[in-house]
Description:
With 71 residues, this protein is α+β, with helices and mostly antiparallel strands.
Amino acid sequence: MPVITVQMLSGRTAAQKSDFIQQVAEVAMRTLDVPERAITIVLNEVAPESWGAGSKTMAALRSKPPGAQAI
C-alpha cells in the first residue's frame, strides 16, 4: 500500500489539488501495478512564511519587486 506524501506551498485551488491527486494516483497505479484503493496521497500545505529557501522565507522571495530574481 503506497503512501505518497507531498509537501507544497499553500495557495492552490481545490480543483488543482484534486487534479494533482488524480494524476499522481494514475502514475502510481501504472508504475507500481497496484489498484487505486491501495494508494493513499497526503498533501501537506505549508504557508509561504513558514517555508524557507536559503536564508529567506518564500513569502519574502515572492514579494520581490518586478525584475528582481524570485523563486
